[in-house]
Amino acid sequence: MTELLTAAQMRAVERAAIESGEVTGLELMERAGRGVVEAVFEEWPELAKTAHRAVVLCGPGNNGGDGFVVARLLKEWGWEVEVFLYGDPEKLPPDARVNYERWGGLGKTQQLPDNYEASADDELDLIVDALFGTGLARPVESLGITFLDMQEACAIGRISGSNVRKGAAARVVAIDLPSGICSDSGNGIRDAGFSGMPDVAAACNANADLTISFHSQKLGHILSDGSWACGRVVVKSIGLEEGGHLQGTETVILIDQDMLSGISKVAWSNKYTHGHALILSGGAGKTGAARLAARGALRIGAGVVTVGVPPSAQMEVAGQITALMLKRIEGADGLAEVLLDKRINALCLGPGMGLERARELVPVALRAGVRQGGIKSHPTVLDADALSAYKDDPEALFDMVHEGCVLAPHGGEFARLFPDIAEKLSAVPSVGPAYSKVDATRAAAKRAGCVVLFKGPDTVIAHPDGRCSINSAQYERAAPWLATAGSGDVLAGFITGLLARGFDPMQAAETAAWLHVECARSFGPGLIAEDLPEQLPQVFRDLEV
Question: Domain 272-542 classified CATH 1.20.200.10?
């Protein structure tokens, strides 16, 4: 299990270690600098063999202190090193000031950007960004230095590499995070009046080839712009106690294989042991999304899956399915009657339903005690049209949902259901820590009173009690082929199938999201939504399920 930390949480971990006498701040800084050099040589072994040239950009805080350690170590390795400091050396924090002075015994420190005069003729091998890291809380522009000034060395280094060293561009390494990226949100913090290019990539040129984090990854490495800005992320130990230092709902978990449990089936089971999922479809010509969801629910292990169709779609669906069951459900009364079947224990509403049918059937599906004996409502996935049907009155939906529900919106659907939260999320951050997708999803789950799965390459899943996890389809788990019509419908089916098997809503959403990405990665380029359920058997074999 991997915990993703905020900047404040990381500071608290370091402070606790220092106050306990386990380590000093100066020792942590030395370990961090050594970790950076070690990571650079591991990433590019050729740089450890002969002397090279580096530019180290140091900031006014402890991130800059790490940079001075890196500069000293590279110099001792035989490198030619230039160091530029943004800020007044007299105002450096005590530990950073010590390392500034240690570097001063080996070389000089110039001011950035005033004294920096790079040329395309310079032959750089490495640029180290130790300017702000996790500590940036206000726009770089407001500090009197533009992003383009700040990163001029990086741009020149890339030009130099292409022109002088036959395409081997200078490597850009960021300590903690590329400067300008918020550690908690992954957003670029910039002045609201900044008149440069509209996207962060063009505005700040802050992207790195390699980012070295310490102790644990941060939220900003995964969320929003962070994934493209960081290049590859390597986590180096600085000798702090691993894991378990956060409390309950403060923790954000990066979903991984170790979190999967309960996927295997036991020898003595039968089909109803693993539940009966009901997927409601739309009318004629609009049944594909529900069939995709149903196939996903069946492949992930639900014992029985029924597609509930209106009369107009009955023949269409009957001609398209084999292992799936079919049930004619005409309206609210029809659904209420079907739900008297005690074997049905999970529902999925939304994919391809149509707004009118969704408005008619969602209240019936969510009503408590619809089954005989006053049994609580069925675990239910609401997606697509079941969410959009309430865009004009989201509170009406929230009044009906219960703790067994999972809402699975993409960005547009999220904005329609939670417009005020989405507005905060989309605002250009001018101070840090910026409002993050984690903040937004937690707020949405609390308001709705159920689990919310906010889709994207950085899918965030939150419980009303504050528990939160992220399923990342980035870095080595990148799965761009998921950007295809119907993939979200399959995900809804995966969640529904796991609910039918008895998974709790949070666990079902986390497991389904992780397997969804694994299926895409296993299939590869050319993926279409129909391929996702059919890839599950191979994924299960690879997992030795």
Answer: no
Task: Report the chain's mean pLDDT, rounded to a whole number.
Answer: 88
Domain boundaries, the chain: 2-243, 272-542
CA-nearest of 511, 515, 530, 508 to 380 is: 508
Grouping H, G, I as helix, E, B as strand and the rest as coil, residue 372 is helix
CA angle (383, 292, 274) in 5-degree steps: 85
Could you tell me whether strands 451-454 and 458-462 are parallel, antiparallel, or unpaired per DSSP bridges? antiparallel
Q: Which of 255-264, 288-297, 363-372 has the highest mean pLDDT?
A: 288-297
Look up residue 70 and give its two tokens: 């890196």
Closest CA to 486 of 290, 354, 318: 290
Compute the C-alpha angle 352/328/492, nearest 5°.
35
| Contact assessment for residue 85 and residue 58, using Cβ atoms and an 8 Å cutoff | yes
How far apart (Å, rounded) are the C-alpha atoms in residues 367 and 378? 9
Q: Can you tell me the distance from the alpha carbon of 136 to that of 130, in angstroms, rounded to the nearest whole number?
A: 12
Give 203's pLDDT tier (boundaries 50, 70, 90).
very low
What strands lie across the sheet with 171-175, from one edge to the other?
109-111, 80-85, 53-58, 126-130, 171-175, 210-214, 232-236
Task: For residues 323 and 534, give the distance between their C-alpha atoms in angstroms, rounded to a whole number.
Answer: 13
CATH of domain 2-243: 3.40.50.10260
Concatenate the DSSP letters of all residues of 161-220 into one string.
HHHHTTT-PPEEEEESS-TTB-TTT-PBP--TT--S-SSHHHHH----SEEEEESS-BHH
Contact between 112 and 150 (Cβ < 8 Å) = yes
φ/ψ (deg, to 5) at 234: -120, 135
Strands 344-349 and 451-454: unpaired
Task: Tell me if domain 2-243 and domain 272-542 are identical in fold.
Answer: no
Tell me which residue of 117, 128, 107, 115 sits closest to 55, measured CA to CA.
Answer: 128
Residue with tokens 């009046």: 193
Q: Which residues pair with 327 in a beta bridge?
A: 308
Q: Containing H/E element for 129?
A: strand 126-130
* Residue 425 near residue 443 (C-beta atoms within 8 A): no
User: ω before 351 within 30° of 0 (cis)?
Assistant: no
The rounded Cα 490 to chain-centroid distance in angstroms is 20
Quick check: 78 and 53 in contact, CB under 8 A? no
88 — pLDDT class (breaks 50, 70, 90): very high
